[in-house]
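Sample 1 of the test manifest.
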Amino acid sequence: METIKDIINTLTAPEILITLAAILLFVSARYRHLFYTNKVALILFPAMFVFMAISMFDEDFYLIVTKPDNVPIVGMLFLIPFFTWLSMREAVRNDKRTEEGAPLIEKEETADKVLTWPDLVYTELIAIVLLTVLLVGWSILIPAPLEESANPAATPNPSKAPWYFLGLQEMLVYFDPWLAGVVFPGLIIVGLMAIPYIDTNPKGNGYYTFKERSWEIMTFLFGFLILWVLLVILGTFLRGPNWNFFGPYEYWDTHKLEALVNVDLSDYFWVRLLGMGRPDNILVRESVGFLVVLGYFLVPPMLLAKTIFKRFYENLGPARYHIMVFLLLCMASLPIKMVLRWLFNLKYIIGIPEYFFNI
Amino acid sequence: MSKVNPPRPAAKRGEPADAGRRSFFSWMSLAWVSFTASMLAAGTATARFMFPNVLFEPPLTFRAGRPEELQVGIVDERFKDSNQVWLVRDGGGIYALSTTCTHLGCTPNWLSAEQKFKCPCHGSGFYITGINFEGPAPRPLERFAIDLADDGQLVIDKGRKFQQEKGQWELPGAYLEF
């Protein structure tokens, strides 16, 4: 039992957990006709439930899972995989029907369009009533935790944002506040708003499909599941005192020691590679970082337009193509920076604390 | 397909209709004047509301006891709650560190076993000197001006701060030799 716990604690180290999750996402999409079936769901979801139930016997796991703040995330652990599975199953079925020339599931259910009134409004009404009952019951059974009055000198340890902001808080560990707190959230909203203007693929309107929109769906699922939901889960269950990582069966030791000595890129380049001191001139000191960041945003769009994104470039035209690639690169910068931090303790690529400019 | 407008009845000059119009305008100007006045009053009241009657801010300059009370290598946390300052004495003297994390402004904890300040919000870590070494904090903790008063007590002036990345820790006032 202890060995299994140790293995799980090791596997939930953030770099491994995110890699595994990304592999699971892409492999399951590649072999979707095998993975998104009733059989797999009938094994997977009960297995998850049994796993949670058995884990409850572990004291540390029990403490973190039953914390009133964390109850929504426990629900999310089941709900989000379930709905992802459900929509993918429908998509796989529809793709198969299209291949065989059979009508789509949605077409078979009703040939006509569905009316807003009464079909949609009735469903919404029932959902509203049930959700209200659920929320009232929940708030009676598990009262919200009321803590002592705020004291600026005593920050709770760990100090966690509301659960839906834990993804943002996780980003803040890797980026300067102006980026992770202002620019990235803004880009997420702007990027989501830009989707209808960038995505010119008319397919998949009103019916489930994967094959006809595989690129769009995978990009979204990666951004949503890995870069948002997984970070929320990570922040909820795995971040402990002093914002250190703890396995799900690990005791939250305030004095857990982790070597996290971080190094700027300028240190790596001037001190460790060239064996000299860092130049006094800020621009010279950070020139490597500026080159890296500029290169990251300028070179890939041109290379991709000639190679794997050739079709996109032709379909979208230069303006839309460059906006799309820019947004993609911003999205990719988060996992890239996380991996660099975990593997090389890289703090900032450009680090100018003198002027509050760090990337 | 042109449409002809019906002819309007000609207005009569000097008739009661004109008197009604005149009184309408005077009522209108009264209404506008009172509306503007009430808006101005509300605006003034709101602006006044922005400046509180009482400010529960500790004074920026405070006395922090005699320097002999501090032990070498021990972080003094007596003024953390009241003034958001840590006093540290090392081999050569005393300095006053701000308790505000330079990342997003949480209050770090002093972990004496690990000999570091550790922020519970995003995991930034600082040495006892205030230099940042782990987590996302981009720069060291700030130091406040420290001096000896005539009565032999330490005086901390939070109005003057010293930032290491700007080379200000070398300036007089950032460090009290003792």
